[in-house]
Amino acid sequence: MSDVVLEVKDLHTYFELEEGTLKAVNGVSFSIRKNRTLGVVGESGCGKSVTAQSIMRITPKKNSKISGQILLHRASGAVDLARLDEDGDEMRDLRGREIAMIFQEPMTAFSPVHTVGNQIMEALFVHGERDKSAARKRVIALLDEVGIPAPERRIDEYSFQLSGGMRQRSMIAMAIVLNPRLLIADEPTTALDVTIQSQILRLMKRLQRDNGMAIMFITHDLGVIATMADDVAVMYLGKIVEYGAARQIFKDPKHPYTKGLIRSIPKFGATDGAHLATIEGTVPVPLDPPDACPFANRCGEFIAGKCDVRMPAAVTVAPGHSVSCVLYE
Amino acid sequence: MSFSKYLIQRLIYAVLVLIVISFLIFMIVQLPRGDAVDRIVNARQAQGDIITEEDEAALRAQYGLDKPIFVQYFIWATQFARGNMGHSMLGIPVDKLINERIAATVLLSVISLIVTYALAVPIGIYSATRQYSLGDYFWTFVGFIGLATPNFLLALILLFLFHKFFGLSIGGLFSPGVEEQPWSLAKALDLLNHLWIPIIVIVTAQTAGTIRTMRATLLDELGQQYVVTARAKGLRYRQLLFKYPVRLALNPVVNSIGYILPRLISGQTIVAIVLNLPTLGPLLFSALLAEDLELATSILMIQSILAVIGVILGDIILSLYDPRIRMEKGVS
After folding, report:
1. pLDDT by residue (tens digit) across B91-121?
2. Domain of A63?
3. pTM listed for this prediction
4. What does B17-64 look like in DSSP terms, one character per residue?
């Protein structure tokens, strides 16, 4: 397991609100290896973005509390990001250089009054580059690499002058400019139309092949997961309910929630007028949640007196495939 | 479109706007019953003179008041455009009266504007980055007090306090007798000595609003995605604060030059009267009271011109400052 880049153990991220404690991430463990992609899938509000922000240590400062371990493995040994001061030099040095992030909305992720080039080069300058013309050359080459035509002109343009796809490509360029070992992509294709989406996914795969970086790919789109991910973590209400190789999860989903998600993928050539399967209800807000299966109130296989009394432990159902559900205990 | 083209376009619009304004001003000032001749006649009759109908008609012809109003406007406007503003009722050329006061008006307005921003922007940044802290509440409190206190009242209080405790008369812009002297270091120092009182009075009200704007927009910008992006790159909070959110939050503040400057130029009349400031406001006020139409029209026109210049300046600065506006207007 020497190629493990990031290892998250029992991560909890809580937000102290006036209404109570919001347990956005509530005991999550996973690891990501070099050259591999972990897909994190779940509905809005399941805690997947907060998990990513916790790893970057960029959760809202005022009221968030992180516990557990976030181990970043380096040649010089592991460092626990959860222990670092989020504003300290050590954490800042890791951000961008070791772990980088791509965001969902490339329009708002760039400042509208600074050129794209300025913002990409900034990542270099923050991490010690002094030579301006070298930085500029590097960024032009990189823009070319991510498939932006006329990069020597585009580098001086503003984000609002670029198309959505171009913006996301620039964003990727900004993230990988320092060759990070872990790239966190938080819904990078959600705001794009489908053809651009597949171009971006192909680009990310190519970059991974070239650089060997580990990718944490967050999405609610199972189709995207199927193309991108080697491993899949299915999240629900701050917990990973099922974890395993992508192939296993799609072929043989165990958790009722995962099954529901896969059933709700529209099938090509489905009979006209057939309704798409849905999961009833919505994700509840995890304000002071009870210590029970979070999916219990929406589950079709709910067993009273079992599901609502305690949180089921993760059970290994096949090598590398675990599920947290009383049905398999 | 090049920048100079944009500028020329703006100037053409400005001239059109001023033509419309001049027409409105001319009409509104002429609205009250009676005209200059009526007043002259009344005044002479009060002195016991006997004025015949023919005398009145002759006077009307002399002042051009027998012509249709549009012709009158045209004559006045062309004269004004040539810099000929006529005479006030006291026989003093209007341009001389205005010239005496325009420098003080512009000086006070511009300095007030600069002081307003110099105070409001840092305080706004402080308040936004420390939202709901003691300091934030303190400045909010001070701001609202400043906003709620009528300017003239503040001016009166300051006048009173300075007189009572320091025996100083702080009205006007110069000490008695200094104004007529030629410019020297002593005169400049004397001016500075007097200038800060009206500046304080004017700035208290302006600053509060600008602090609120700065605080609100910066809070908005701090929640934007690009702030998270910058943090994710490894920037220090202070670095990113000034490079991104503050820069964007300054946008409406820069924009406000376009309306604060005109307000400073044409407003503040009561304060100027209380503090005996030689600006255009009190001159306009007395001209209106005396129904000195020629003078009032000219002052209003000059104030409008200054206001339009203020708006153009605001626009130009904003388009230099924000590429989105520059590009939208096709200026590169």
Report:
1. 788 888 888 888 888 888 899 999 999 999 9
2. 4-98+180-237
3. 0.82
4. HHHHHHHHHHHHHH-SSS-HHHHHHHHHHHTT----HHHHHHHHHHHT
Question: pLDDT digits over A211-245, tens only?
Answer: 999 999 999 999 899 999 999 999 999 999 999 99
Which of A113, A126, A158 is the closest to B235 by Cβ? A126
Mean pLDDT of the B237-248 span = 92
Q: Is B82 an interface residue toward A (CB < 8 Å)?
A: no
The per-residue pLDDT for range A237-278, each reduced to its tens digit, is 999 999 999 999 999 999 999 999 998 888 777 666 777 788
d(CA B268, CA B254): 21
Write down the CATH superfamily of domain B94-328.
Answer: MetI-like (1.10.3720.10)
The answer on pLDDT for A167 being more than 90 is: yes
Q: Do B232 and A97 touch (CB under 8 A)?
A: no
The answer to whether B234 contacts A160, with C-beta atoms less than 8 Å apart, is: no
Q: Do B231 and A58 touch (CB under 8 A)?
A: yes
Give residue ranges of A with CB < 8 Å to any B CB: 53, 56, 58, 87, 92-97, 100-101, 103, 105, 108-114, 119, 122-123, 126-127, 158, 160-161, 174
**Does a structural domain hold residue A306?**
no
Question: What are the sequence ranges of the domains in chain B?
Answer: 94-328
Given an 8 Å threshold on Cβ–Cβ distance, is A122 in contact with B235? Answer: yes
pLDDT at residue number A270: 65
Quick check: is A246 in a domain?
A: no
Structure tokens at A328: 């398999």
Mean of pLDDT values over A155-181: 93
Question: ipTM score of the complex?
Answer: 0.86
The structural domain count of chain A equals 1
- Give the pLDDT confidence score for residue A140 in this predicted structure: 97
Query: What CATH number should be reported for the domain holding residue A219?
Result: 3.40.50.300
pLDDT: which is higher, A148 or A277: A148
- Chain B residues whose CB is inside 8 A of the A160 CB are 324, 327
A94 vs B327: CB contact, 8 Å cut-off? no
Q: Is residue A58 part of a domain?
A: yes
**Which chain A residues are within 8 Å of B228, Cβ to Cβ?**
53, 58, 103, 109
Q: What average pLDDT does this structure show over B296-321?
A: 87
| Partner A contacted by B229 (CB < 8 A) | yes
**Residue A67 main-chain phi, psi, to 5 deg:** -135, 165
